[in-house]
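Contributing new records

If you add data, match the layout below exactly. Sequence lines come first and carry their own label; structure lines follow with theirs. Keep one chain per record. Anything else will be rejected by the validation script.
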Amino acid sequence: MALFFEPDGGLNVGTILATSFALGIVYLWRRYEYILNRAVPFHWPAPEASFLNWSSITIRSPSITSHLLDPVLLPPNHVEGKKYITCYDPSNGLHITTVPADAELDIHIKIDAAKHAQEQWKTSSFRDRRRIVRSLLTWLVREREMCARVACRDTGKTLVDAALGEIMTTCSKMEWLLKHGEDAIKPTTRHSNLLMAYKKSQVFYEPLGVVCAVVS
C-alpha cells in the first residue's frame, strides 16, 4: 500500500494511474480470450422417437431387413429396387424408421466430401478446434437428458446405462481434449546416446485424413 502514497502522506497519482492501466489491460485481454474461446450456442431438435410418450409398430423378431417381410415398414415414398435399413428399438422391437441404404456411389461421394472438409480442418488452429469441442460439450451437458433418451432408443440401454456409458464418457473425453489435447499432439524429442549426440530425433503427429473405423 505504501506505493500509492507520497512520503508526505499524499496520494501517488502516477502509481495509481499506472496500476489501474495495467489492471485494465489484463481485464481486456482476459475478456478478449473469453470471447475467442467461449462456446458457440446452437440448437438441435430432439428426434420424435426420443420422447417418453412416443409409440410405434412393434416388430416381431426385428432385424435391419424386417421391411422385406413387412412392407408396411417401408417409407411412403420408397423406390422399388433400392435397399433400405429398418431401424428399431432393441429393447422392445418398436419400429423407429426405415432409411435408404447407401449405394457404393453414395459412399464415395461422402468420403470425397469428408476429404475436402479435412483439407480445411487440418490447417485450423487448436484454439478453433478447442472452441468446437467446448461448444459440443456445452450442448451435451445442456441436452444430456434428451441425448440419454436417444441412446436408450437406439441401443436398448437403460437410462442409467446411457447416462454412465454414453453421456459421462463422452463428456470426460471432451474435457480431456480441452485440457490436454494440444499438448498430446505437439512434436516430442526422443533422447539419444552419446555416440548419436550430433543427431536429433523428434516425433511429429501428422493428420491422416479420412480413415475407416469399425467401432462397437
